[in-house]
Write a structure and sequence with these properties.
This protein has helices spanning 23-33, 40-47, 51-69, 110-122, 142-153, 164-174, 178-188, 203-210, 216-228, 245-262, 279-282, 294-308, 319-322, 324-329, 347-350, 361-370; strands at residues 72-76, 78-82, 127-131, 158-161, 190-193, 232-239, 265-272, 337-340, 374-378, 384-388. The chain is α/β, with parallel strands linked by helices and 403 residues long. The chain has two domains: 8-67, no CATH class; 73-401, TIM Barrel, CATH 3.20.20. A hairpin with a 5-residue loop joins strand 9 and strand 10 (384-388).
C-alpha cells in the first residue's frame, strides 16, 4: 500500500543537484531523488550534516517536495477548541494542565464547545480541532455528547478531535475497545483525529517525558484502530528536549511502517519543544535542551520529506512553534503545508510560545506566495477549497542563511 513512486524516468542521466555534497551524502540524496527508501542509518547521516552537505539536504528536499506535491503551499481555516485544561497525567513537557479547583481551571460544557464551533463556521472555518486535558470528571458519554452537540449545531463542519491519549482515556471510561469506541464516534460525526501525544515513540524517552503513561505500543494501537474503522489521523513528533537524532530517525521509520500497513495518515507535523514554562526544562536545565535549533527545524522537515516520500507526502510546518516567517521558509525545505489559521491556541502559549493565537488566511496566502508557491486553502482531507495564484518567485534560501 502507498509504495513510493520512482522518478528515474525524469532523468536522462544520474540525478543532479546544485549544492556540492560529500560522496556519502551525495549518494543518499541521489537515491532520494530516485524515490528510493532511506534507512534509519541514512537519516542519521543526514541529521549529522553541516555546511554545504546540510544545504544539499534542503535543496533535494525542495526538489522532492515539488515532485510529490507540486509548487503549491496549503493551509486550512480552522479553530482550536481546548475544552478543558484540567489534567492529572503529569506530562513534564506541558505547562497547560491545571488541577481541578484551580482558579484558572476550565471545563467547557458541550454546548459551549458547540457555540465556539458555530462561531468558527460563521468566520469561514471548515474544521474545528477539539482537544483537552484528561479531566477526572469526564464520563463515559462526554466525548460522544461533544461530537453530537457540535454536529447538531454545525452539521457540515469537519470535526478533527481527540488525541490518541484522549481516545485511550475515553476507552477506559466507556470500557470499550478502541475500534468500537472510535467507530461510535465516527458514526456520530467524528471526521479525523490529531496524531498528537506521540512525542517521541521511544520507551526510554517517553519515560522521561510522561512516565510512559501512554506507551508507544498504546499510541500505535489506537492510531491503527482509527485507521481500521476509516478515521484518518495526522502524525507528529515533538523534538528538541532529551532526544537525539537516532530517536527521530526511528520515529520516522515507525510512522512509515504504519502508513505502509494502513494508509491512514494524512500528514506529518514536526513540533519543536517549547521549553520556557515547562517543568521538564526548568527542573533540569543542565540535562534538557531548550528546544531544537533552527538548523534542526530545517533538517527535520527536509529529512521527513525524504524519508516519508511516497507514503506521507504532506509535511506541515507549524507557525505556532516556529513563527510564520520561519515556517514559510520551510516550504522551500521540504514542507508543503502551513497548517491552520487556528483562531485560538492555548497549549503552546502555556508552554511559553510567543507567536500569537491566530494567523489570518491573507497572512497564510502572503507567506506561501513569498516562498514562490501557489497558495491553496484546503480542507482537512487536502481537498481544494480555493486557489490563489502566486505573485512572487523566491529562490530557495540555504539553511545557513536564514538564522
Amino acid at each position: 500500500m502507498n509504495q513510493p513512486q520512482r522518478y528515474s524516468a525524469s532523468y536522462s542521466q544520474r540525478p543532479v543537484f546544485e549544492t556540492p555534497a560529500s560522496p556519502n551524502i551525495q549518494a543518499i540524496l541521489e537515491r532520494s531523488l530516485l524515490g528510493e527508501e532511506l534507512s534509519v542509518q541514512d537519516a542519521c547521516a543526514l541529521f549529522a550534516t553541516s555546511g554545504s552537505d546540510a544545504d544539499a539536504v534542503l535543496e533535494v528536499a525542495d526538489k522532492v517536495r515539488q515532485k510529490r506535491t507540486g509548487d503549491v503551499g496549503t493551509f486550512v481555516v480552522t479553530r482550536n477548541i481546548n475544552f478543558t485544561n484540567v489534567c492529572y497525567m503529569g506530562c513534564r513537557f506541558c505547562n497547560f494542565a491545571k488541577e481541578k479547583g484551580d482558579k484558572e481551571a476550565e471545563f467547557l460544557t458541550v454546548e459551549q464547545v458547540a457555540d465556539r464551533a458555530e462561531e468558527a463556521w460563521q468566520r469561514g472555518a471548515t474544521e474545528v480541532c477539539i482537544q483537552g486535558g484528561l479531566h477526572p470528571d469526564i464520563d463515559a458519554d462526554y466525548y460522544r455528547n461533544l461530537i453530537k452537540a457540535v454536529k447538531a449545531r454545525v452539521p457540515n463542519i469537519h470535526i478533527h478531535a481527540f488525541s490518541p491519549f484522549e481516545i485511550w482515556y475515553g476507552c477506559k471510561k466507556a470500557r470499550l475497545e478502541p475500534e468500537v469506541f472510535l467507530a461510535q464516534l465516527k458514526t456520530l460525526g467524528l471526521g479525523s483525529i490529531p496524531g498528537t501525544a506521540a512525542e517521541i515513540l521511544d520507551t526510554d524517552i517517553r519515560k522521561q517525558l510522561t512516565k510512559n503513561k501512554l506507551t508507544t505500543n498504546e499510541w500505535v494501537r489506537i492510531v491503527k484502530a482509527a485507521h481500521s474503522v476509516g478515521v484518518k489521523t495526522t502524525s507528529t513528533i515533538m523534538y528538541g528536549h532529551v532526544d537525539q537524532p537516532i530517536h527521530w530517525a526511528n520515529h520516522l521509520k515507525l510512522l512509515r511502517d504504519i502508513q505502509k500497513e494502513t494508509g491512514g495518515f494524512t500528514e506529518f507535523v514536526p513540533l519543536g519543544f517549547i521549553h520556557y514554562e515547562t517543568p521538564l526544562y526548568n527542573d533540569n536545565p543542565d540535562k534538557v535542551r531548550p528546544g531544537p535549533t533552527q538548523d534542526e527545524h530545517f533538517k527535520m522537515h527536509a529529512i521527513a520529506r525524504l524519508m516519508l516520500q511516497g507514503h506521507i507526502d504532506n509535511i506541515q510546518a507549524s507557525w505556532v512553534k516556529m513563527g510564520p516567517d520561519v515556517a514559510a521558509k520551510m516550504l522551500r525545505s521540504g514542507a508543503n503545508d502551513l497548517g491552520g489559521t487556528l483562531m485560538n491556541e492555548s497549549i503552546s502559549r502555556a508552554a511559553g510560545a510567543t507567536h500569537g493565537q491566530e494567523v489570518t488566511p491573507s497572512d497564510m496566502i502572503a507567506n506561501i506566495q513569498a516562498a514562490g508557491l501557489k497558495a491553496v486553502q484546503r480542507n482537512t482531507a487536502y481537498g481544494v477549497v480555493e486557489s490563489f495564484p502566486s505573485s512572487v518567485t523566491l529562490q530557495r534560501i540555504p539553511m545557513m542563511g536564514v538564522v
